[in-house]
Amino acid sequence: MKKVFIIAEAGVNHNGSIELAKKLIDVAVEAQVDAVKFQTFKASNLVSKNAQKADYQKNNMNDADDSQFNMLKKLELDLETHKELISYCNSKNIMFLSTPFDHDSIELLNDLGLEIFKIPSGEITNLPYLRHIGKLNKKVILSTGMADIGEIEDALDVLYKAGTRKENITVLHANTMYPTPMEDVNLRAMITIGNTFDVAYGYSDHTLGIEVPTAAVAMGASCIEKHFTLDCTMEGPDHKASLEPYELKAMVKAIRNIELALGNSIKKPSKSEMPNISIARKSIVAKTAIKKGDTLNETNLAVKRPGNGINPMRWDEIIGTVSSKDYNKDEII
Fold it and tell me: What range(s) does the AFP-like domain occupy (predicted)?
């Protein structure tokens, strides 16, 4: 079984500071995730000047400014910052990923040599954007928050027609609410995505805590993405719905344990339980003293531990046979 690919989503939780971004990378390295992901955008390309913040963003930020543009402008990472973060990730042996939100950002990340392109939920209905990424013939991770099955099909068709191969695509089930209420998670939809499109599937999580991504792995997710931060109480749109460093570690540990526990699907005694077979199972034993020549029957035989004698599944075979020797009570036949 291939290892689950775990993406720690730093997103915009660096608050525009390269020092904070590097600290987030350190946390991701320590938690032993596979990749740390940021977001690449130009505010002027992403939102119009009069676009309002989402309600969760307004609730999570204390400033009176409701403009998405002003919020995002402070969270942009320029080309030099990208180069610095990529080289920092390389030095720490962790994969750098970033989600592009516009055409310039797609080109910027492509020029920087990114191997995997993450398409966020909000762009699943953006045909020119999907076509642009599809043409790059890179690995693609497609988030599907807010989408129905028809919209996922349309997006995949655009990617395929543009030149991306099916085996290079992983589709993530997601819910675009921060945090996602448990009753809205609908993890079974992840399986529906995998079965409908015959693609690798995973889950991008916005719930609080780590149970849901761990459950997703138990249900076959090959990729997990989860927001994290240095501190949930920091100022910014996504901190509140992000894991703190100790929780990120716990999630990775839980996922790796579940991976091990899933095993190979063959039902047989495991290595660790083999020594317990003779201790926990039973054998056919003498219920009372038996003399050589006595007929073995239900009154002089019993089934007791240990299990290193005749298997009780052969009970009917033994009943009615003649004892070939003397037995004391409790002696294995």
Answer: 283-333
What is the radius of gyration, based on Cα positions, of the chain?
29
Sheet with 200-205, edge to edge strand ranges: 95-100, 35-40, 5-11, 223-227, 200-205, 169-174, 139-143, 116-119
Q: Which two tokens stand for residue 99?
A: 């989600």
268-333 topology per CATH: Type Iii Antifreeze Protein Isoform Hplc 12 (3.90.1210)
Q: What is the pLDDT of residues 249-284, one digit of tens each?
A: 999 999 999 999 999 999 999 999 999 999 999 999
127, with CB counted inside 10 A (0-12, 13-18, 19+), is exposed
Closest CA to 232 of 247, 217, 221, 218: 247
Q: What's the whole-model pTM score? A: 0.90
E-strand ranges in 164-199 read: 169-174
